[in-house]
Amino acid sequence: MTRGPAIRVEGSARSEGAPLFAQLSLTLEGAGWTCLLGASGVGKSTILRLIAGLESHVTFDGAITAADGADLSGRIAYMAQSDLLMPWASVTENVCLGARLRGQTPDAARARDLIDRVGLTAHAHKRPGALSGGQRQRAALARTLMEDRPVILLDEPFSALDARTRSEMQELAVELLRGCTVLLVTHDPAEAARLGHAIFILEPSGLSEVTPPPAPVPRAIDDPDTLALQGALLRRLREGAA
Ligand SMILES: Nc1ncnc2c1ncn2[C@@H]1O[C@H](COP(=O)(O)OP(=O)(O)OP(=O)(O)O)[C@@H](O)[C@H]1O
Q1: What pLDDT sits at residue 21?
Q2: Which of 33, 37, 94, 150 has an alpha carbon within 20 to 30 A of 51's alpha carbon?
Q3: Coiled-coil annotation: which residues (predicted)?
């Protein structure tokens, strides 16, 4: 696995002629987890889509660059908020979809292992319509991990999971994405406090950074510093909404 580069996002965005977010300067640590929080509709997913180079409804005035100077295209795996699973394909086929679309032979053993690690072995043959919301989300997570890219963009990837599975999947993602540059959009202050090497809150006026504790990620859920940060983040989010 190539080490993920640092990424810099600098610019402002307008949607339908009106400002969505003001001039911002966001640096994603190379080979680290950056968490992005903020009120619904403030533009978090839009930032992910802009980095991913996907079609967007906004006009972005600025630049998105990797610190190593190389193009980002082909180096990103993106997990959208909606799981985007193909309804006609089984879990295994969905996990292998990227390789198939590129005309490559998928690594079947790796797919089996990832499906096992997300707890879906018993469901590997099923189509998405036969899965629960949390199972679908884990299938989408396995598909993202299967891509083996140095830059990973995750849009609320654990939001549909029960508390126990969520903490397990957070730990799995940290383990399997070691060395990757990860941008995680989340509404969960506890998740950001556990996973962020860097944590930002997006507001219409711009970004603010909240310094996490120095403990390595994933931080213990019941660590006093993690809990204190969780509380501080929730307070900041509530103040922002006031
Ligand atoms: N396809 C689209 N066409 C027009 N406007 C859109 C489109 N997608 C999103 N928007 C608008 O752009 C703004 C930013 O949306 P975005 O999805 O980036 O927000 P978000 O911060 O990720 O929200 P959430 O936390 O609810 O997912 C919102 O006001 C939304 O209504």
Answers
A1: 87
A2: 94
A3: none
